[in-house]
Amino acid sequence: MHIVVSLVLLALVFLAYHRALGSLGTWWLFLLRLLQAGVLFLVLTGRTFTVVCNRSSNRVVVLRDRSASVAAAGADSIADGVVSQLSSLRPFSQEVWEFAGVVRRGLASKGEIDTGRTDIGLALATAAKASPGAIVLVTDGQSNTGDDPVATARDAGIPVYAIGLGDERRENMRLVNMDFPPVVYLGETVTVRVRLASSSVSPARVRVRLNGQTAVVQRDSGVTEQDVEFHLRLASPGIHKLEAIVDSVPGEASYSDNHIAGFLDVRPAKVRVSYLTNRPGLNSRFLLSLLRLEGRIELLQFVGTGAAFRTSDLKNADVYILDAITENEEMQGFLRLVERRVQQGAGVLIVAGPGFEPGEVTRRILSLGSGVDIDSGTFSPVATAAGRLLPWLDLDGGVDLSTVPPFHKVWTGRFDSGRHELWLEAAEKQTPLFLLARYGRGKTVYVAGYPLWRWGYGPEMRLDESSPLGKLVKGILQFMAYADTAMFRVQTDKELYSAGEPIRVLFTARSADGSGWEGLVPYVSFDSHGSRVPMTELGQGRYEAVLHSSPGPRIATVTATVGDTVLGVAKVQFAVSDQSLEYSRTGLNAGLLRRVAAVSGGQFVKAESLHVERLDIRPSRFRQTLSLDMRQTLWVYLAFALFAATELTLRRIGGLL
Asked: Looking at the whole model, is its pTM more than 0.90?
């Protein structure tokens, strides 16, 4: 198409002038018209010209480390001397920047830079944005915050010439990670893998300890990482702190990273469920059939009158199911025992049904000030805002309430929104159907509607945990059995930090049935006035954030949200000492600086061995691309106007107009 347009324009110009090309003035007019046609062709066809060239910059950014670790090692004067020597670099022009926890262009006066931290990754990234030909890094290499300097240097694509300050400390042991499942059951053996990183001159054997176990591992020379595996079997349910420590070695560069901690949720191997009713019916048949199918339930069933029950069998249950209980004189003694267990932390599921007559004890457990009334009709269950957060009522794998039959009877009472949390209500009258009440340290779930057994009965429906009744019973039992597991828990990996040390905040979210709650948006803040920082999801209901704080006692507050809804708040206390992290890591980290120089194509040299004339700085070459779009370029239109004006002027002079 471009060729056709060109030929047409050329032909038109030639036809306009072919009879008058004999004179010199006419030739000038022909050339001007030809130039106009060429410019018009470039604009109409949208031609773009691209020029690619490689260039290098003679600018060198010198990054001078102003952190406290350099000062503590007495290397400030050495750093100043290095910067002075670098001023004689030829033919390069230097810009001296200073950094520690932040980066400042030019020389900083005292107090202008936070010297309590060292962020070499930030310094390299900031310098790279200025597109120098090379970066000269004058530091001890003790980076203790921010991104990995090696990865930053690799991604920048600019050679880094690292000049090391201070005496080299070649020994360091640190624990960088601890991996284990967030939840295990009592009696199971849990595998804990601790990642050990080391840098050393010679091989040696070191000890790593975890909760009373000790592993002796072989440490190789150089920079290495290896996993140390432990196998634990914890003796009691609850939240257990796992604490790993690697023994320090003489001359170690830092002792603050020889320790790492985490928290493991150990749950009972089997949930002990006591089922009680003195009015057996269809609810009894369906509920007992489901309970017998669940492998993690140890079932104690009591069907009959109160006289047939044994108090010793009731004492150790984790969950009690009271099905259509008539609270008569025989039952009250057993119900008082259940009441005491609920106050101590056990759970109770109270199911209404024919003959349900709650008395004084049952009303206390339900937090009811008066009795219950029977209401008949059609009661189609719908989930409330609180109910939709429950995993067994979630549309994704939970009970589909649109498929379950409605209730025909409801035992209603005077429920208090301050004491009760409504899960299900009737679509017709907003009558409460499922409620949660707190009593002492325990939890009470009340099913007010009947018949509940129909949730487990229907065409092509199997009476197992896949049925609506099965999902409901399993979810509620798990919710009540794990009373020792808070829904939201926050911990820090240490209780005391050095000033400037990164603070790792770990947040665990458990849904109502005890499973990991994923998809939340938790925020963490320090004290009541701190800004909120979003946490990173790790999976299985675990979230993490790494922050810094000023010295003093602190409180980390995590707020768990979904959309605009706040689900809960958890807090943990810790402290930050006045002792700076910079003083716990001193000496030259030559290994890090060698890797930074190697991945960037630069060079590493110690300050005492520096000879500027031997510093072989080779600036990086940049590929520069210049694109010229004829439709977007102003001077193209100016050229067209100039050619047209010149032609018009010549025509007037020659009398051709």
From this structure: no
